[in-house]
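Before the break, one more example. Copy the sequence into your notebook; we will annotate it together after we see the structure.
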Amino acid sequence: MNLTAIPAKRAPDAIASCAAANRVQPYRTIHKALRLMFGHALERTGALDAGDAEERAAFVDEVERLLGFCADHLAHENHFFHEPLRARSPLAVVAFDDDHADHVAGIEELRGLLARLRDGGPRAASLAYEIHLRLSQFVGESLVHMAEEESTLTSTLWAHFSDAEIMTFESALHATFTPEQHAFHLRWLARALNASELAELLAAMKQALPAPVFDAMADVARAELGPQRWGRIARQPALA
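Here is what the structure looks like once it is written out:
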């Protein structure tokens, strides 16, 4: 990773100040969902019985979905956040762009290994372990990168854009999602966010989406959370 060049003293200060700031944090919620997805995938790959064809195929499908989501996420960040920031501060995103290129290469490497694992054969067990190690490496690098985006890069966005402008970037991104993509994201967000975060997200969706579409999204969240936690969400001031 290239972000190791950032002075060690900057990261804790940036993290603390961003965590305490009362400003729009564009990476916060989706990165919480991504961390949950990463943990689930690592759990699955560690416990995978590679000799079971059905289990192996289900695992490959799941990790492929994760990698597809990661590739889309990188492209979205590049287009909707990095490009506007590059126009105002060309050097601010260089290290992050380099990391994104490394992550794209890692995704392609993992996809090649998954294709070989899907076919099974005598090397299935060793391939599964190799995927476990390489996915661990990919996740570790991604976790460091995401923390830097939520601190150092977010601070840079705040220095160059108002909250209203950042929210415009977010709205343009969300407008590209299909209902199926919204539902996929929301399943993970519902499990990853705290009650106030999820309530604020749902309140924003309620304002932005047609009523039938929002009702369908609320049903997705309700089914994911169960009645007790959903009741807590529904009582949050943002949805009152």
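The two ends are 44 Å apart (CA to CA). Residues 4-11 have pLDDT under 50 and may be disordered. Try to locate both features in your own notes.
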